[in-house]
Amino acid sequence: MDKINLQVIRELFGRVVYSHKTHEKEVEIQQKVARDIKIGNILIISFTAGPLLANIITSQRAFLIVGSVFSFLGLAFNIFQLSFDPDKKVSTHKDTANKLWLIRERFVLSLISQMSAYRNRKLY
User: Fold this and answer.
1) Which of 26, 43, 63, 101 could covalently link to 51 via disulfide, CB atoms 3.0 to 4.6 Å apart?
2) Residue 124 located in a structural domain
3) Domain residues for 7?
4) Which burial class, exposed, middle or buried, applies to 42 when counting CB atoms under 10 A from its CB (0-12, 13-18, 19+)?
5) Looking at the predicted structure, is the pLDDT value of residue 95 above 70?
């Protein structure tokens, strides 16, 4: 193989490796975002339940207002969560990373077999 072909092959392989790693990093980021959203959802629900239970016990209107505000925030948060589904992004990036990994492995195996065939041909 000449130097130009080898340089092109290295560049293409590097691009595949970089894309694969980028998708793996995005999976990690989106998993953290999904976890944080779930924790936020739990906190909003608990902030909603607390004042509403206090309203039942004490019959104070302020607890009802606070509970209603958190209830509205919980509804808005759930609508946001359904609109921008981070779990779906995680699975999409995982699938893409897996496909790129397969391309990368096939690329390497193909190069190894072609280079060994090329070397064997030169020896004869």
Assistant:
1) 63
2) no
3) 3-118
4) exposed
5) yes
